[in-house]
Amino acid sequence: EGRDGGQPEFLQAVREVFESIEPVVEAHPEYEKNGVLERLIEPERVIKFRVAWVDDEGRVQVNRGYRVQFNSAIGPYKGGLRFHPTVTESVVKFLGFEQVLKNSLTGLPMGGAKGGSDFDPRGRSDGEVMRFCQAFMTELQRHIGQFTDVPAGDINVGGREIGYLFGQYKRIRNEYSGALSGKGLDYGGSLARTEATGYGLCYYTQAALNTLRNDSFEGKTVVVSGSGNVAIFATEKAQELGAKVVTASDSDGYVYDPEGIRLDVVKDIKLGHRGRIREYADRVPGAEYHEGSKGVWTVPCDIALPCATQNEVDGESAEALVGNGCKVVCEGANMPSTPEAIATYQRAGVLYGPAKAANAGGVAVSGLEMSQNSYRLSWTFEEVDGKLKNIMESIVANSLAAAKEYGHEGDLMLGANAAGFAKVANAMVAQGVC
Ligand code: NDP
């Protein structure tokens, strides 16, 4: 706490993990002897850099860039880049820490990292976004590479940004390699990567529902927050699995559509012209728009899938969800629930799927993109989607097995932390103190 005192998000993520891995550490005295916990929370490398670029008016703009290379015990560093004004060292460190355990849970050989910038792309032209991405990569390129560190997308870093970043990497390094994932299909991307986090979230939820409650999405009312990459494809898969999704939101507010969200309209607004979700209510009769994104948690539902950002569900929102009959919360966003919210889910017996397990589908398919780049071939959509489904089902099974082993049967949070941690810890012990 002394060393990272000004980093509340990072400390929140570490506390949650440390509480649940206590039984694992007790069962493995070699972890303490080898200083595994102390080493686990100290990133191997924190890179902070200036990003200077020229806007459309000819003015020089300066942003701050980050890459936190957290842990490389089980593979090259891997994790997304986020461009958002709320990006700080604490946010990047919490995301990087979570990424270490998440990547381990996928079963693929990937270490953990995260990066980004406080750059706000809202209102910026395409040319400005390109120049920012080029300036960002001009520094980042010296720290990454297919065998070192493979960044991907996150909030406000989608196909367009990855394209500009990849172009600059290739130009400076004079090398065509899979140094980024989430690439376009014409230049080394994987089919099903765009859909992977949202689809994976639903595969995870469906498997957990099936195993723990003998139930499914069929006929359920679902609240989804956000309207970005994760939210859109979570909505698509939940609808395919027979659920009715009744909300979508952005940082301004949310829409409630009692007939079920029309995803063609959301896609047209968000992917078509980067518009605001309030437009939905102007275009779909019977839908309501409400200012304030937090209100989305007051909409009655059976299943909630938070897919926007960290700490978007606080204690009060969790009480509202549970009070209105919500029985399942699975996290598409990273750390969307505050500790108070998690305590409420646990008190109410909610089936709670934590982010590092439930949203691991994105990085899992990024890992599959790396494999395809190495082989220099492309798998079909069905092949990738099938592997994604298997990975998500294994994450549920492995989490439940670990929970049982450590005496907390049915606890998906403890199980995910324990299973993800054990593999990394064993690798760290095997590789000696470094
Ligand atoms: P996008 O940029 O595509 O979408 C983000 C969505 O969340 C937008 O609707 C955005 O609204 C909303 N949002 C962002 N900040 C806030 C806020 N402070 N309050 C309310 N709404 C907000 O990002 P993604 O869909 O990729 O990411 C969403 C979450 O999922 C993040 O937590 C990310 O870390 C996590 N995630 C993403 C993965 C991926 O593969 N993309 C993989 C694993 C996790 P607005 O447009 O108004 O900003």
UniProtKB/TrEMBL annotation:
<dbReference type="GO" id="GO:0006537">
    <property type="term" value="P:glutamate biosynthetic process"/>
</dbReference>
<protein>
    <recommendedName>
        <fullName>Glutamate dehydrogenase</fullName>
    </recommendedName>
</protein>
<dbReference type="Pfam" id="PF02812">
    <property type="entry name" value="ELFV_dehydrog_N"/>
</dbReference>
<feature type="binding site">
    <location>
        <position position="229"/>
    </location>
    <ligand>
        <name>NAD(+)</name>
    </ligand>
</feature>
<dbReference type="InterPro" id="IPR006096">
    <property type="entry name" value="Glu/Leu/Phe/Val/Trp_DH_C"/>
</dbReference>
<feature type="binding site">
    <location>
        <position position="78"/>
    </location>
    <ligand>
        <name>substrate</name>
    </ligand>
</feature>
<dbReference type="InterPro" id="IPR006095">
    <property type="entry name" value="Glu/Leu/Phe/Val/Trp_DH"/>
</dbReference>
<dbReference type="InterPro" id="IPR006097">
    <property type="entry name" value="Glu/Leu/Phe/Val/Trp_DH_dimer"/>
</dbReference>
<comment type="similarity">
    <text>Belongs to the Glu/Leu/Phe/Val dehydrogenases family.</text>
</comment>
<dbReference type="InterPro" id="IPR033922">
    <property type="entry name" value="NAD_bind_Glu_DH"/>
</dbReference>
<dbReference type="InterPro" id="IPR046346">
    <property type="entry name" value="Aminoacid_DH-like_N_sf"/>
</dbReference>
<dbReference type="InterPro" id="IPR033524">
    <property type="entry name" value="Glu/Leu/Phe/Val_DH_AS"/>
</dbReference>
<comment type="subunit">
    <text>Homohexamer.</text>
</comment>
<dbReference type="Pfam" id="PF00208">
    <property type="entry name" value="ELFV_dehydrog"/>
</dbReference>
<dbReference type="InterPro" id="IPR050724">
    <property type="entry name" value="Glu_Leu_Phe_Val_DH"/>
</dbReference>
<feature type="active site" description="Proton donor">
    <location>
        <position position="114"/>
    </location>
</feature>
<feature type="binding site">
    <location>
        <position position="153"/>
    </location>
    <ligand>
        <name>substrate</name>
    </ligand>
</feature>
<keyword id="KW-0560">Oxidoreductase</keyword>
<dbReference type="InterPro" id="IPR036291">
    <property type="entry name" value="NAD(P)-bd_dom_sf"/>
</dbReference>
<dbReference type="InterPro" id="IPR014362">
    <property type="entry name" value="Glu_DH"/>
</dbReference>
<feature type="binding site">
    <location>
        <position position="366"/>
    </location>
    <ligand>
        <name>substrate</name>
    </ligand>
</feature>
<keyword id="KW-0520">NAD</keyword>
<feature type="binding site">
    <location>
        <position position="197"/>
    </location>
    <ligand>
        <name>NAD(+)</name>
    </ligand>
</feature>
<keyword id="KW-0547">Nucleotide-binding</keyword>
<feature type="domain" description="Glutamate/phenylalanine/leucine/valine/L-tryptophan dehydrogenase C-terminal">
    <location>
        <begin position="190"/>
        <end position="432"/>
    </location>
</feature>
<feature type="binding site">
    <location>
        <position position="102"/>
    </location>
    <ligand>
        <name>substrate</name>
    </ligand>
</feature>
<feature type="site" description="Important for catalysis">
    <location>
        <position position="154"/>
    </location>
</feature>
<dbReference type="GO" id="GO:0000166">
    <property type="term" value="F:nucleotide binding"/>
</dbReference>
<feature type="binding site">
    <location>
        <position position="99"/>
    </location>
    <ligand>
        <name>substrate</name>
    </ligand>
</feature>
<dbReference type="GO" id="GO:0004354">
    <property type="term" value="F:glutamate dehydrogenase (NADP+) activity"/>
</dbReference>
<dbReference type="GO" id="GO:0005829">
    <property type="term" value="C:cytosol"/>
</dbReference>
